[in-house]
Amino acid sequence: MASLNLQTLGLRAINAQLNTGDIASGSSWEITEPKGQHAIACGLQADIKVDIRGHVGFYCAGMNQNADVTVHGHAGVGIAENMMSGQVRVTGNASQAAGATAHGGLLVIEGDASSRCGISMKGIDIVVGGSVGHMSAFMAQSGNLVVCGDAGEALGDSIYEARLFVRGKVENLGADCIEKTMTEEHIKTVDDLLKKAGIDGDAKDFKRYGSARQLYNFDIDNADAY
Amino acid sequence: MTNKAPRTLPRKSATLDDYTLSEIRRAASTGIYDIRGGGAKRQLPHFDDLLFLGASMSRYPLEGYRERCGTEVTLGTRFASKPIQLDIPITIAGMSFGSLSGQAKEALGRGANIAGTSTTTGDGGMTPEERGHSKLLVYQYLPSRYGMNPNDLRKADAIEIVVGQGAKPGGGGMLLGQKISDRVAQMRSLPKGIDQRSACRHPDWTGPDDLEIKILELREITNWEKPIYIKVGGARPYYDTALAVKAGADVIVVDGMQGGTAATQDVFIEHVGQPTLACIRPAVQALKDMDMHRKVQLIVSGGIRNGADVAKAMALGADAVSIGSAALVALGDNHPDLEEEYQQLGTTAGAYDDWHEGLDPAGITTQDPKLAARLDPEVAGRRLANYLKVITLEAQTIARACGKNHVHNLEPDDLVALTVESAAMAGVPLSGTSWIPGQND
Q: At what angle do helices B377-401 and B102-115 cross, to 10 degrees?
């Protein structure tokens, strides 16, 4: 494993190094002393493994493609935002907008995630070991959000076709979000995601939430819901 | 003479005029606010309220067609390693595939290529056709992030972070279900036929401090190559410009309330934001106060129609302008030849603005394959190129008459205003006086 010290090399050099066209597929990298800096390991494209030893700031692993990034610490706003593929793991907690607008891949947050987790998600799978804050999955379009703890206010507000699974208490649901039946297919989905995430849990303990599809086409009599 | 007592003529209310009455009846009947495309239609102080002085005893003009008057502009010189070079200071504004047909997007690209300028994507992402037909393509980074992916980001020649637009500063958007074809739905990761709401705020940043970090991320992902624009609606142009500079923009786009939209509430278009004319001087002042004028480039948009508008924007300090609605007209939008079909839609050529309904007989603001096929991208692209070249030539004509060998050398001293309002907004003297309201009174 090659080790890159962020304080010595600087952000630009490290991101450039991890994005060189000839980087070896399957190679492993370690970033030390991140000290909460922003935009670490963003825009990665290769099938590589990156371990970040410490806390990171905003947009770590943003727009990730193919890479497997682990933050051994806490993450700031927008971890793995707009991720396309690959895997991002946070061993601690994540701030707001984790996995925002992401199209694919797997985001695992072993601790808690703050507000707007999975906002406008477009196909990503997110597994949160702890709880999520308010307005999580706001305008979530597709993908799966699995929350092993509780969910804050207005879960799934204005949700489209994303599927939300929560094991604990939901403070309340947002506009057009309703509880739905857990079928065998959904139990399997949750079970698979928990296994992929390496988080213990019984999929049967989860409840499913999704769109009532009442706001899909404008109706003046729904104006108070907008 | 009869003995009947004379009666006054029937008098309609200036407050409740015919248009207002029709809107009340429409709202009462349909239960939905009026949604339309385009920009503000009300009478506003505009570039027509300014005049150029031309050359005289104190300065000499340049010979038309013989003495050079430059129009080239470089955008993104602050941080980007690959700034954009345009032959003309007129760019094509962001308009989405979805709101526009694929043929219209292709025509915009073809026209811009011939004229030597850039086009811009819109909400919904970049199509391969659009990239293929646009030599210089600016990729819009919008709150919805529909279709947003890093591969397209890297293919772009510049990135425009949209904070707002002139037609609706502070507003999001909604593409109504009837325009959501299979392809549009697929690009936006949403089901076909449903209303697609675009958020009014970005999902992962909220203010200029966060935006500075977002720009860092975008630069890291694109290897610090791409110029990064920040587009704001004409709300608080001085502070918006200053904050955009602080956030790290290479280029700032200020879009006044005449700037068009694909679909927004009429009440929003007509009542929120400021006229384009009122936005330029404060934006330029902010750049000057920060010693960033001409270092961070300023693009002005919203109601640019001809070379005089271009030249006036340049004289007030803009580096370039951007056109949207006028470009669509050049392609064929609202053409009188289609009057019969406009009548069938309950409107008339020149007034058609129900772009959200997808029934555009010109084949421009539609996703209906039959209607879209009416627009020949090559022919329409040529029309756009002709129009761009004409208004460039018009701007050069004015600049030469003012003795300038580049349109960027036009200056406020070349202008006077016809009205007190426009004098105050533009910061130039009222015609026939040395009075600039608010500055030396």
A: 40
